[in-house]
Amino acid sequence: MQRENVPEYSTNVLREGITNTVMHRDWFLEGANVFVNLYAVGVEVVSPGSLPQDLSLTDLGGKNVQN
């Protein structure tokens, strides 16, 4: 018998979440940081900033905002 370490969260999923958070953060917020919070029930990746003015949470996945 040998112990096999199985990660609770896929490395690919964590990498994608953190990469997206860093790439899409609001770079105009000086001193703001990206946070990765580990909880017993999950992982939370927090990015500084907010949605563009013309976009709401209900619009996500169905509306594009052009610069």
General description of the model:
The protein has one helix spanning 11-23, and strands spanning 35-39, 42-46. The protein contains 1 helix and 2 strands, in the order H-E-E. Strands 1-2 form a two-stranded antiparallel ribbon. Helix content is 19%, strand content 15%.
In short:
With 67 residues, this protein is an alpha+beta fold. The chain has one helix and two strands. A hairpin with a 2-residue loop joins strand 1 (35-39) and strand 2.
Layout: helices, strands, pairs:
Blueprint lengths: L10 H13 L11 E5 L2 E5 L21
Keywords for this structure?
67 residues; alpha+beta; two-stranded antiparallel ribbon; elongated
* Spatial arrangement of strands, main beta sheet: 1-2
What integer is the average pLDDT? Answer: 85
Helical proportion? 10-25%
Poorly predicted regions: none
What is the straight-line distance between the termini? 58 Å
Give the number of helices: 1
Query: Helices and strands, in N-to-C order?
Result: HEE
SSE class: alpha+beta
**The biggest beta sheet, please?**
2 strands, antiparallel
